[in-house]
Amino acid sequence: MHGFIIVLLTEEEAQQGKAHLLHHIEKIVYPYKRAYDQGDERVCGCADETGAANPNCEDCKGTGKSPHNPNGKLDYWVLGGRYEGFIRNGKIDPQKSIGDFFTELINFMSSSSGNVLPDSSHSEIDTNVVPIDHIHLNVLREVWITPDHGWVENIFNFTDDPRQKYKDHWVAGIDYHS
After folding, report:
1. Average pLDDT, rounded, for the chain
2. I want to staple 90 with a disulfide (CB 3.0 to 4.6 A). Which of 33, 47, 138, 171 is the partner?
């Protein structure tokens, strides 16, 4: 399944070069990924009060360290992607919405090993990163990631107009796979 996320950025973050911007977005999105990066495993839920892991645990295989994020919502993301330009114009290109199984498999394998996908996997900044007052109205009801509320399914639970609440911010439109 694919979806669209609006990532809130400061103007300074949005104006960085593409590589810096992508790494910054990865830091914002990382808490919502289903798998932790290799070497960043967390304590498994099977551990008892002494910290001993269940040797038969399917998740950690008895190591006590789990690579799975219980709060995860996505496997990987790309800037724009199937939603190229959607944040700016509110339209989805039917040709891009089809996807490519081989590309998706490569993206999943790459991201599941803790890598940020290469710049070439991402769409251009100018069509997918805009000042918040340039966001298309059709896009406002999509999922948001904000610094004050995290993953937000309905931004209108927190504000009547996110363009006013975050008026000095920029937004990036990303395509995620879950």
Report:
1. 84
2. 138
pTM above 0.85, yes or no: no
Contact predicate 171/6, CB 8 Å: yes
CA distance 56 to 76: 29
> CB–CB of 74/176 below 8 Å?
yes
| Buried-exposed string 9-43: b where 16+ CB fall within 10 A, e elsewhere | beeebbeeeeeebbebbbebbeebbbbbbeeebee
Rounded to an integer, what distance in angstroms lies between the CA atom of residue 35 and that of residue 85? Answer: 28
Residue 86 CA to residue 4 CA, distance in Å, equals 9
Residue 111: per-residue pLDDT:
55
Strand segments, DSSP code E, in the chain are 2-10, 42-43, 65-66, 76-79, 129-131, 143-146, 150-152, 169-177
> At 18, which amino acid appears?
K
| DSSP designation for 68 | B
Q: What phi and psi, each to the nearest 5 degrees, are found at residue 78? A: -140, 150
Measured CA to CA in angstroms, residue 143 lies from 71, 112, 122, 146, 155 at distances of 15, 22, 19, 10, 7
